[in-house]
Amino acid sequence: MSEAETQLIADLTARMLGELDDLVDAMNDAEAQIVPPLVADRAIAEEMSASNRANVEVVLKHVRDDPLGVGPAEPPPEAFDVVRTVVRRGLEMDVVFEAYRRGQTVVWQRFMELAPTVAPPGPELVAVIGRFAEVMFSYIDVVLIALVAEAQRLREEMLGGALARRTETVRLILDGAPIDERVASGRLGYELSRRHTALVMWLDGSAGDDGALESIATSMAQATGARPPLTIVAGVRTMWAWIASEGQPSMAALARAMRRAPATMRVAVGPTLTGLAGFRASHADALVVERIIGDNTGGERLVSFADVAPIVPIARDEQEAARFVADTLGALAADDERGERLRATLRVFLSEADNASLAAQRLHTHRNTVLQRVGKATELLGHPLGDRRLAVMTALEIAHLLGPKVLIGRRGGR
């Protein structure tokens, strides 16, 4: 390549790096359409998105900084994370292959859209396109070869081990496969005939710590008077757990156990149900909670299915939830500190049947402060609290649990 051509491709990849967020979003959306499991599972979706970002950055930065150099020799750590999760879940690597091919297509299409804007038709444009194609397609081959080798290594490591048997047995139960309850209990070392409370536990942020998740799951079981929980590592930062008990575990007991958890840890709690079917259903409902609150980083740390059940029909659809919140709360749906403070006060006030004294106790503030904030919140609503009371309470709960993505003024809100 000539000096002019290397400068053109460096400028072009620098431009793509400048729109990296949009490019990764497009990759995520395209992969979700082709590979539905990436949408259904928050942990896998997050890890795949992190892998997309890391892979694109590696390629674009390499071409920008060294257009003539040998392509990247190995995948970034994020690419291995998602493969480990796929293998642990017992999924086929086809999920990863399809996602990579679709993501590659998105990047290539964007490059081809931008290339003619930096070079007119002619030899220079052909050279720029040819060099980028060479680096990108060679890199994808390198990545997939490395990921297949890692998947094979993990499968060989798991074969014949207790972890493999436990993971496979849990997968059979969750998939609804015919399996004898006593046989499954023996394989798991966990009594399936009892009542089960499923937990989906994860850590916000980039760092994972299986030990912390396992420790808090055990503390929660102990706090409810139950035997040690059944746990399955479900992702780099995610664990699934089940607590077997005779009765209904107390949320207050679970909350006490959470006090020892890292600040970034969050837990979705399923309902307490009986037997194999209950084991499966409680987990499914815990996953619903996780999907609803998972993106609200820094939100409520311990949420049960009972907490979200009234809003599930609306909250399942993020865009519909955002519309409902905006239409119901109006200016009170603003994504700022003042809006958050007024919403929090009004939510507690309404839940305490308009009792300012009880609301003040819960909010650790003065009764007059509560009344002042409720008055300001009512002004922003634009109508008396008695009008559309149920809708307002529902919208406040959705805003509380889902956070910025359904509020006005942030990306993802209206």
From TrEMBL:
Boundaries of every CdaR GGDEF-like domain copy: 185-289
Residue span(s) of domain RsbT co-antagonist protein RsbRD N-terminal: 22-166
Database matches in Pfam families: GGDEF_2, HTH_30, RsbRD_N
Annotated InterPro entries: CdaR-like_regulators, CdaR_GGDEF, PucR_C-HTH_dom, PucR_C-HTH_sf, RsbRD_N_dom
Superkingdom per UniProt: Bacteria
Domain PucR C-terminal helix-turn-helix: residue ranges: 342-397
Stated family: Belongs to the CdaR family.
Protein name: CdaR family transcriptional regulator
Annotated organism of origin: Gordonia rhizosphera NBRC 16068
